[in-house]
Design goal:
single chain, alpha/beta, Rossmann fold, 6-stranded mixed beta sheet, 4-stranded antiparallel beta sheet, 10 helices, 10 strands, about 25% strand, binds adenosine-5'-triphosphate, branched-chain amino acid transmembrane transporter activity
Length: about 240
């Protein structure tokens, strides 16, 4: 079998003395979409932070594209192609939409062909995916709606030419009509850009509609994994709902 794009073996992490993740094994195959689900506080966000390098591994090993990246910091992992859309989106409020997107280009610095790509600016496919961003490119990030900010945060992560996109609760606080637009855009990100997606999502209908497989977290561990095509969300919901 082909090596997964992302692979975690026995990964743990702590906040100071307080251990939050234990013995995480996770394979994310290239081209797949994996949903990470679980109740509040079980460690989903911490797992994403560990993957992007914002949290140090205290045990285990992480490989990305077959290379051991366990010891690399966040900038190096971003440069390797790991893009992150944080919970709450973290748009720069005083920068315009265009300037926010340009900050995503920094992940290209130091990559082969990176200087040319930075000079070329924001790739057209980002505006093809999110036409709204082109219309509001001079507007300040702070005045955008939740849905516009989410599109901007995804566009910014894609500007760094990520091959893996991590999203932390992209549907949170977004109206249903916009959730559908985001799902459509993420489908195109997979199909047209070949980007692999790992998504933390509380909204199970969205997770099931979008992802191929799921992992359930409980108290800092992955306790169950399966296919969203072979099981229904209802069969798993008791592990996730409070
Ligand atoms: N910066 C931090 N310092 C110390 N403890 C933290 C920190 N961030 C999170 N925690 C703790 O780590 C545990 C896991 O939190 P985490 O945010 O990863 O969970 P989550 O599953 O993403 O929850 P939610 O759905 O509420 O975002 C919780 O007990 C939380 O209180």
């Amino acid at each position: 079998m082909a090596e997964p794009l992302l692979k975690l073996d026995g990964v743990a992490t702590s906040y100071g003395q307080s251990q939050v993740l234990w013995d995480i094994d996770l394979d994310v195959p290239a081209g797949s979409a994996v949903a990470l689900i679980g109740r509040n506080g079980v460690g989903k966000t911490t797992l994403l932070k560990t993957i992007i390098g914002a949290q140090r591994l205290t045990a285990g090993r992480m490989t990305f594209q077959g290379r051991d990246v366990s010891a690399l910091g966040p900038h190096q992992r971003a440069r390797a192609g790991i893009g992150f859309v944080p919970q709450g989106r973290h748009i720069f409020p005083h920068l315009t939409v265009r300037e926010n997107l340009e900050t995503g280009l920094s992940a290209l610095a130091g990559r082969a062909g990176g200087a040319g790509a930075i000079k070329a600016g924001i790739p057209d496919h980002i505006f093809d995916l999110f036409p709204k961003l082109a219309q509001i490119s001079n507007r300040k990030g702070g005045v955008l709606s939740g849905g516009e900010q989410q599109q901007l945060a995804i566009g910014r992560a894609l500007a760094g030419q990520s091959s893996l996109l991590l999203l932390d609760e992209p549907t949170e606080g977004i109206q249903p009509s916009v959730v559908q637009q985001i799902e459509d855009a993420l489908r195109r990100v997979r199909a047209e850009l070949g980007v692999t997606v790992l998504i933390v999502e509380q909204y199970l209908d969205f997770a099931w509609s979008f992802a191929d497989s799921y992992r359930v977290m409980q108290r800092g561990r992955i306790i169950r994994a399966g296919s969203t095509r072979e099981e229904t969300a209802a069969e798993v919901a008791h592990l996730v709902n409070i």
